[in-house]
Amino acid sequence: MAVAWSGGRDSTALMHATARCAQALAHEGFALRVLGLHVHHGLSPHADAWLAHLQRQVETWRGQGLPVTLQWHRLDGVPAAGESIEAWARSGRHAALQAMARAAGASLLMLAHHRRDQAETWLLQALRGAGLAGLAAMPRQQARGGLVWARPWLEQPRARIEHYVQARGLVHIEDESNADPRFARNRLRLQGWPALQAAFPGAEAALAQSARWAQEAGELLAELAQDDAQRWLEPAPGALPALRLAAFEALSRPRLSNLLRHWLQRSLPQSAPASLVTRLLDEAAAAPAGASWPAGRRVVQKHQGQLLVLPVPAVAPAQACRMDLSTPGLHACPAFAGCWHVALVEGVAEPSSEWVGSSLLRNVILRPREGSEQFQRAPGTPPRALKKAWQAAGVPALGRGGPLVYADFPGETGAPPRLLWVPALGLDARCRGQGEGPRLRLRWLPDAR
């Protein structure tokens, strides 16, 4: 198990308490080691001394029989111009902790946040005008990237942790940046919290309780959104799941807002701004067909009684390019601003299904559309102009982005490459089930990072 260990009071207490538990379990036959993960941000002139302190602390604790080790990582670079130091440090710290825990094979990472931290987070979010997700503050545990981030002391008062540190004589570091009032949390702790607690002695427990109520309400809204998604979301050709516009008449505005936020969270690579949700609530139902709303690197478009989330079309490259797509996995394609997901088709698959043998994908040609392509959508149907095939399948213009895939077929020496795959439509019916080797299925992911 791993502990995020800054060296401060709270994380030192958690590291020590966890190590004592592991030591006690060793007598019961459980061989556990506690890994302290330290991130050297490079921001304080004392950061090297803090790391040296932790290294000495580990040696001291080992001498006392505690099963502890230390790993550390120094962040590279500095905040970009205009970037918040807090945001830069937090993002880098989380990435470093995730990487170190994964490298060590840890599945559990514990953080030392306590009840006062939770109360402060709730209050800061409220002062920023946050919605329910913000007011839910910090979860007790959450899974991210195969790692469980847990806060076992989230309901413990700060005073209890201070008592633990004093009772065991633990030495910890003091980060001088905690006294810098430029940071919002520091201002709250130094200026606002003493007055608040003097006027309302139970504020810490009360605000932490409010965060728990917000978490419970958020879970209920998530369940409701899942139920509504089952009814109002449906597959769309060449796009992420579409939202049926009939929901705008059937649902109340708060319930529709909840569904929109759920849908956009699933469909966008970044969080949907509240302004986008408000605009869709106010404008989408009455907007003309084809109306669109920008959403970062995506766009929301009204099409045939639905709202679709589509990629912003990339500028086509000047020339075609070749790629090897004959192995399963993700294959970056910078020329078309996206990547390929190649999946292995297992089990019995009919020749007419959406797969081709790997031999056809070893040296494919990627081209932008030129306008004269012919595509056969289903076996036994005549080939037709690609534009007509897209229209017949109900694929909007913005959903047709991406490269066309051509392949050289065996036995056709001297013949031009044949159209194999088309965005939003898939494999040409004349190519399905052909080729030797493992059976593979293609999927195009626009603007994948």
UniProtKB/TrEMBL annotation:
Domain of life: Bacteria
Keyword Protein transport: no
Ranges of residues in domain tRNA(Ile)-lysidine synthase substrate-binding: 243-307
Family annotation (Pfam families): ATP_bind_3 (PF01171), TilS (PF09179), TilS_C (PF11734)
Assigned keywords, A-Z: ATP-binding, Cytoplasm, Ligase, Nucleotide-binding, tRNA processing
EC number: 6.3.4.19
Ranges where the Lysidine-tRNA(Ile) synthetase C-terminal domain occurs: 365-444
Protein name: tRNA(Ile)-lysidine synthase
Source organism of this protein record: Roseateles subflavus
Primary gene name: tilS
